[in-house]
Amino acid sequence: MTPSEITDRLQSELPLTRAMGMSVVSWDGAVVTLVAPLQPNLNHADTAFGGSISCMGILAGYALVYLLFQERGISTRVVIQKSTTDYLRPIDTEITSTASLPNPAAIEEFLEMLKQKRRARLTLNSQVLSGKTLAATHTGIYVALLY
Amino acid sequence: MTPSEITDRLQSELPLTRAMGMSVVSWDGAVVTLVAPLQPNLNHADTAFGGSISCMGILAGYALVYLLFQERGISTRVVIQKSTTDYLRPIDTEITSTASLPNPAAIEEFLEMLKQKRRARLTLNSQVLSGKTLAATHTGIYVALLY
After folding, report:
1. Which residues of A touch B59 (CB under 8 A)?
2. From the list A13, A39, A51, which residue is nearest B54 (CB)?
3. A14, B49: Cβ pair inside 8 Å?
């Protein structure tokens, strides 16, 4: 899928991402990167709202799991079980969020568990940046359920 | 402040809360309750997007800290340092989020620390409900900085 196709899919599944102005800027088969402009995500201090930062962290991980299954033609429902965001510094420019697939062994274990139990859990970390500077880290536990 | 005044304040500080349709429905001096309709916060499974649920948890705690200072006439900047959401079950109706002030001793300790160090940290829990059913718990660490 191209970044623009992934953007369309996320925006159609999750209308709030349109209000946030979120779009996917790159996907190379291992790393996905999303951006959102500051304006719709502002807080009272003219930096990014903590809720928007958490959303961007959640979305990078969700996009990865979505792409992992999409590229393998596996139909699942993916939900988030736990989301943790550590805010390190304010974001005063475009919000960038990026996440990388885990190593192949961890992916195989996840897919094998899904096949056996029809349900499997994957922990994914994402980094949220202010421009090029790390501003928050997000850890999401995502659960996939086989249809 | 009335619920409608708090709603206006949050919506003007945080434009994303308008897109979410968030409003404050009650504040009795100890407990604040916020709601948001499902529609703008939907996910791919026609239940609430995990990011919206985290936002509602963050906002209930943030509203409490805001009100705590507002009622005492203390000017601070409040930022979130850490946000953790545990998603327990899907939300398929209006999203309700509620948070309660901690006990008076904990509040006094927080305000005393703020006076001494010009910076203090408060942990607040919020509950996010699907109608009347508990659907997620949120823990936020909020930092207040005295102007």
Report:
1. 51
2. A51
3. yes
What chain B residue is nearest to A9 in terms of C-alpha separation? B44
Q: Which amino acid is at A104?
A: P
Ordered by start, the domain boundaries in chain B are: 3-146
Angle at B25 between CA A36 and CA B16, to 5 degrees: 10
Q: What is this structure's pTM?
A: 0.97
Backbone φ, ψ for residue B131 (5° rounding): 65, -115
A47-75 b/e (C-beta count within 10 Å ≥ 16 → b):
bbbbbbbbbbbbbbbbbbbbbbbbeeeee
- Which of B39, B76, B81, B85 would best serve as a mutation to test chain A binding (most A beta carbons within 10 A)? B85
**Angle (deg, nearest 10), helices B50-72 and A50-72:** 170
CATH, domain A3-146, list 3.30.1360.120, 1.10.1040.50, 1.10.10.10, 3.10.129.10 = 3.10.129.10
What lies within 8 Å, CB to CB, of A26 at 6+ separation is A3, A32, A33
**Residues of chain A found within 8 Å of residue B50, distances taken between Cβ atoms:** 58, 62, 79-80, 83
Instruction: Dump pLDDT digits (tens) for B27-81.
Output: 999 999 999 999 999 998 899 999 999 999 999 999 999 999 999 999 999 999 9
At B13, which helix (H) or strand (E)?
Answer: helix B3-13
Strand B76-87 relative to strand A133-146: parallel, antiparallel, unpaired? unpaired
State how beta strands B23-27 and A133-146 pair: unpaired
